[in-house]
Batch of 3 targets.
Target 1
Amino acid sequence: MPKSTDYKKEKTNQNMSVSFSADKLKEVQQIIARYPEERQKSALLPVLHLAQQEFGGWLSTETMDYVATLLQLEPIEVYEVATFYSMYNLKPIGKHLLEVCQTGPCMLNGSEEIVAYIYEKLGIRPGQTTADGMFTLKTVECLGACGYAPMLQLGKNYREHLTRQKIDELIASCSGQSTVATT
Ligand code: FES
């Protein structure tokens, strides 16, 4: 078993294909500088966000290992965090990520029907992506908009009080269609 430092060195060598641009590395340093010295682990969440944004919208093992190297952490410390929070994607996602809240208030107001309707429209279940790479469906925990249940997040926007018609409109607009499907 290699020593931890050797392990990190080996991982660094394997990670040549994943690396931030000079500008992004500067951003990482600025994030780390917000926290006390030796507490670079506190920068993990924002650096993972940055990595997800930069490397195709998801975190591969290679990307997580790269983040571990940057923050001088063990890879397992990064995996633990990345697998805990639903905001990190651990496999490739489609162009449009539909994150449907499935916690109590949304569930009581029909989130399961919304998920079922998305399956009816797009043929994808939670965790799946359409064959054309356009849509990924994900179910997530409370997004803090319980008063607008059922709701979903699409990119940085919330879509609230969802109905079948609103899902039709959403899919049509993401697909670049001018007419709205009605079923
Ligand atoms: S329960 Fe869905 S936003 Fe809170």
Target 2
Amino acid sequence: MGQQTIIKLVDENHMPQLGLGVWKASNEQVVGAIHTALEVGYRSIDTAASYHNEEGVGKALKESAIPREEIFITTKLWNDRHLDASTALQESLDRLQLDYVDLYLIQWPVPEQDHYVDAWRQLIELKEAGLTRSIGVCNFHIEHLQKIMLETGVVPTINQIELHPLMQQRQLHSWNATHHITTESWSPLSRGGKGVFNSPLVERLAMKYSKTPAQIVIRWHLECGMIVIPKSVTPSRIKENFDVFDFRLEKEDLTAMAELDIGKRIGPNPDDYNQL
Ligand SMILES: NC(=O)c1ccc[n+]([C@@H]2O[C@H](COP(=O)([O-])OP(=O)(O)OC[C@H]3O[C@@H](n4cnc5c(N)ncnc54)[C@H](OP(=O)(O)O)[C@@H]3O)[C@@H](O)[C@H]2O)c1
């Protein structure tokens, strides 16, 4: 297996390009999943207060012999805590049994509430206080990004957005890149590969490279420069999803992947997602 790739963020911190997503994994499931992942070589875990499994993540980290500073931990601020980010992060740290996280993200802009600039100001202070090494956002469209950058002058390191072959987000990815914001793909497998793994193109590429459809899709994210966090609690899949550093997709195959983009969302549109 080849060497995993590491991305340098705009704040000079480094983040593994491939991590483990843990949404919908229970506290019990997440402990086993993280142990398997760390054994295989993953060094990045993506959780959130809203996933209700930070305790499990903390337990797995406590049990692991791998030093804390070698593992990159992301958690997220939920929508009803935009005016209360400092307490919310401290609660996450308590559940994770950590002194700091590596990345703290605002999970949704919640435009109707319109407190995301206040939340961003607090995240800037939390970084200065050393409670998170990097700060970023999720599900921000260009207007939301422009607003926080204009009001504070601080560029988010990451914009974590829904991004997979059926919804390739080329315009937003390119805008992020122009502003030195790294794009991170959520639901990178279209949540289990529906409509992707069985497409003739991905099936053909899987045959060509002697890889599985999931590995082809993960490799596509890596080569397009995204950070990618496929979720699995299944040991064989956790291993499969990490076994992607020993091949590269040829340029013509990367280009061909564009044909799968039908702009199909799995999750909500951030412009009208206002759930608290
Ligand atoms: N910021 C946000 O708003 C946001 C929103 C959604 C997700 N996320 C993050 O992004 C992560 C990934 O997104 P996601 O969980 O929605 O979807 P995903 O990673 O695209 O897909 C996960 C699903 O695919 C299955 N799977 C995993 N590897 C597979 C493989 N090799 N072959 C076949 N099936 C496979 C998993 O099943 P098993 O687990 O049963 O193996 C699970 O059902 C989340 O866990 C979370 O950390 C963030």
Target 3
Amino acid sequence: LVGCSVQPVGGSGVFEELSLFACSPTDLSELLKEGTKESHDRAENTQFVKDFLKGRIKKELFKRATVALYFTYSALEEEMDRNKDNPVFAPLYFPVELHRREALVKDLKYFYGEGWKEKIQCSEATQHYVDRIHHVGQHEPELLVAHAYTRYMGDLSGGQVLKKVAQRALKLPSTEEGIQFYVFDNVSNAQQFKQLYRARMNALDLDKNTKERIVEEANRAFRFNMQVFDELDEIGRSLTEEAQDGGLPAHDGKGDLRKCPYYADKLGRSWATAELPQACGTRLAALTVLSVF
Ligand code: HEM
């Protein structure tokens, strides 16, 4: 089976579990990987994620994404704390290695200052995701693993790439301020840690039906993430230039952009080739992208 070959790792302690890790198609880790493949492809192909990977993300939008993550991980980690002694989740409780809330608080302090809490709010799509996490944690805790898997395994997989992209695109300091979310100080080897996590998921005592419900819930978690991405994409399109990282000044969104001397001058040659918008406003973002990238 592809993805099942486990390199036995030496040493002692929890990593010894890995040498016992034999993979079978009915293992939860395999069912999740196979059962969420399509969702993963779809998530990778959302506009927001594609733009992010190309470094096309403005600071204001990155800040909003950090806010969404803050509310999501606050809910997730609250529910994981609640279920830390529940056998359906306890083996996957790794607060020191994985929990992101504190890292996100640091990022929000960096972006919004000490009064960060008063300056942020939970978006609609994020609220739906948060509500579902709380429901699961309180009423169907056997499904909590699906939410933890979808986020932390993803973070440990693509995080390093995204960290570099964000650092470069937003010109963030090399001291990693603003991107603490992507830094797992207590995971020295992400690949090994993911194997440990898979082994722990497979050791949960679950019947076939519960495993199927967990896979279904993981696909649901992917959908919540995609809804948050789509919402961010929408916000990105409607941000004024001023909000977009001190770019071009905001415009009132009315009238013909070609009659605005500032833009005609500012956009210069790209103006000639750009598809001219009917009006300013939301389509300014598209024009700025044309002129900046
Ligand atoms: C930026 C676009 C993305 C890229 C390039 C990417 C890339 C990858 C790669 C290469 C792996 C395999 C790592 C391995 O087997 O060790 C992986 C795994 C994973 N990713 Fe992503 N990913 C992206 C977005 C996402 C998103 C948006 C989510 C969910 C919110 C996600 C969740 C996961 C999960 C849960 C796994 C673990 C799969 C498993 O081994 O069971 N990824 N990703």
